[in-house]
Write a structure and sequence with these properties.
The chain is α+β, with helices and mostly antiparallel strands and about 250 residues long. Helices cover about 40% and strands about 15% of the residues. Strands 4-3-2-1-5-8-7-6 form an 8-stranded mixed sheet, sandwiched between helices.
Length: about 250
């Protein structure tokens, strides 16, 4: 197996295992995918790794991941792809060049924000400011993604943003690689959790001046990629000690 593809399998398996540990998953549903290069070495979004249908994320291994193409043909692996997973991820990978890694979850606190009328992640807390100017919002729940049209709609709503809050549904978080996307997923849930807890009981949220929001977001951008790499390295080290079978 190509060494780059093998490492990508390991990274995606690591992200799925840690999502289960952190309670970001839902049963055997939700899905993570990673676009991989074709024979010419280019990442076009038409070939991607994705978690297999019916597997709990805590049991995912690198070899259990499915490699499929934009038509849903399984290129590597003996498992299958859940239909909504295919229709969401295939369309987002093709439509959004920034979406090399695509993570879709129903993680509880971020999803809670999508259940509110005009629900927004308020720029009132340090972790939330990581996402200043980087979030898109879908205001129209489209039902289960059981055809390409719903996947296309989701991709269009994402546009050039890093993450999309899906009305009455959950989130789609994207990144240039697994480490970046998973770090965003983690901090988005932490920011949403802080907001939900702070607003409980009807409490008003603090406000941060717009210029300070912008400046703090720029500070995050300067340090953030290094943070993502360090955090994901730590995740791999811990799994290497505690659940080394994820690499198999």
């Amino acid at each position: 197996m190509d060494q780059t593809l093998h490492q990508q399998r390991i990274d995606l398996a690591c992200a799925l295992r840690w999502a289960a540990r952190l309670g970001l998953h839902e049963g055997v549903c939700n899905h993570f995918s990673l676009a991989v290069a074709d024979a010419d070495g280019l990442v076009r979004g038409d070939r991607f790794l994705i978690n297999p249908y019916g597997w709990h994320w805590s049991e995912i291994t690198a070899s259990s991941l499915v490699l499929c193409d934009a038509d849903g043909t399984v290129l590597e692996g003996s498992n299958t792809v859940e239909p909504t997973a295919f229709y969401i991820h295939s369309r987002v990978h093709l439509a959004a060049p920034q979406a090399v890694c695509v993570l879709h979850t129903h993680m509880p606190y971020a999803t809670a924000l999508t259940l509110r009328e005009n629900g927004r992640l308020a720029m009132c807390e340090q972790n939330a400011l990581i996402f200043y100017g980087r979030l898109a919002y879908d205001e129209d729940y489209g039902g289960l993604a059981l055809d390409g049209s719903e996947g296309d709609r989701i991709a269009a709503q994402l546009g050039n943003a890093s993450a999309l809050m899906l009305a009455s549904h959950g989130v789609v978080v994207t990144g240039r690689n697994v480490a970046q996307a998973f770090t965003d997923l983690y901090y988005l849930e932490r920011a949403a959790q802080a907001q939900v807890l702070a607003a409980s009981g009807g409490h008003r949220l603090r406000t941060i001046p717009e210029e300070l929001q912008r400046r703090t977001a720029q500070q995050h951008m300067q340090e953030y990629e290094g943070l993502a790499d360090r955090l994901f390295d730590a995740y791999r080290r811990m799994l290497d000690k505690q659940e080394p079978d994820y690499r198999s």
